TrEMBL record:
Database matches in PROSITE patterns: HTH_MERR_2
The HTH merR-type domain, residue ranges: 1-68
Source lineage: Bacteria, Bacillati, Actinomycetota, Actinomycetes, Propionibacteriales
Taxonomy, superkingdom: Bacteria
InterPro entries cross-referenced by the UniProt entry: DNA-bd_dom_put_sf, MerR-type_HTH_dom, MerR_fam
Protein name: MerR family transcriptional regulator
Keyword Transcription: yes
SUPFAM superfamilies xrefs: Putative DNA-binding domain
Gene Ontology molecular functions: DNA binding; DNA-binding transcription factor activity
DNA-binding among keywords: yes
Keyword annotations from UniProtKB, A to Z: DNA-binding, Transcription, Transcription regulation
Pfam family, one: MerR_1
Length: 124
């Protein structure tokens, strides 16, 4: 199938398909006329990439899932590398939650100090 059909079937733009290809996530064959020729599995691949990107993974982090589908699996997340990618992303989120929690604590403390400061004669 050509790029426009793939984009339509996968629910993305042609620009998105080209981006995925530029990141090495799609490798279409070239037809005799030079047009990109995508396989049926590429629809599932593009949908999976889109879903993973919506969860905050980078394009590069979706590669194990793409490889898992290309290996003939029905799901992109049944391969060991996909499971490890999930674990790494969860660990990164946990680190960010810890950092944000600490930052929130610092800001709350500064707010409390600022609210309690009241020079004589000045209105708050």
């Amino acid at each position: 199938m050509q790029i426009k059909e793939l984009a339509d079937r996968a629910g993305v733009t042609v620009k998105a398909v080209r981006y995925y290809e530029s990141r090495g996530l799609l490798t279409p064959r070239r037809a005799g006329n030079g047009y990109r020729d995508y396989a049926d599995v590429d629809v599932q691949v593009v949908r999976e990439i889109r879903a993973l990107l919506s969860l905050g993974l980078t394009a590069e982090e979706t590669l194990p899932f793409v490889d898992c589908l290309r290996a003939g699996n029905d799901r992109a997340d049944v391969c060991p590398a996909s499971l490890e990618a999930y674990r790494q992303r969860i660990a990164e989120i946990d680190r960010r939650v810890t950092e944000l929690t600490a930052l929130r604590g610092e800001l709350a403390e500064l707010l409390h100090e600022a609210e309690s400061y009241h020079p004589e004669g000045e209105k708050r």
